[in-house]
Specification:
89% helix, mainly alpha
């Protein structure tokens, strides 16, 4: 029982710390994630090479180096494409909703919201806003976890 309480306590503290870091450093989060992913691929590739999995190792190292070198450029391109695809999906859903005989407020508002989020992701700062929201949710979850002990 004591181990479970300690684990819950440390998990809650970890959530709070990660949440605060996401809130404070939300603009740097993508860079950190890209760096971590690049390092992970390089290390994984090197380990594969030691295990004599040459093809898999070389591919992992190449991906890792590419992510490390081109991370921000690739991230911006991915966010642009993903945002445009989300916006297009929202437009298609809105057209479908408007064609239906019975329309609900939610069936119209959700596609509009999807278009707005897609455009913000492609051309705005939606990623930063999502990181901020995730940070706030982690802090709240951590604090609630501390009080639930």
């Amino acid at each position: 029982m004591a181990k479970k309480k300690n684990s819950s306590f440390f998990t809650s503290l970890l959530y709070i710390i990660i949440g605060v870091l996401l809130i404070v450093f939300r603009d740097q989060t993508l860079g950190w994630a890209m760096t971590a992913a690049g390092v992970f691929f390089v290390i994984s590739g090197i380990l594969d090479l030691f295990k004599r999995n040459v093809l898999g190792g070389v591919i992992s190292v190449i991906i890792g180096v590419a992510v490390l070198v081109l991370g921000w450029t690739v991230a911006h391109i991915v966010l642009l494409v993903l945002g445009i695809l989300i916006a297009v999906k929202g437009v298609v859903s809105l057209v479908d909703a408007l064609k239906r005989r019975t329309k609900t407020l939610l069936s119209i508002l959700f596609p509009i919201f999807t278009v707005v989020v897609g455009l913000m992701l492609a051309f705005g700062n939606a990623f930063s806003l999502m990181i901020l929201i995730a940070g706030i949710l982690l802090v709240v979850d951590g604090v609630l976890g501390l009080f639930a002990r």
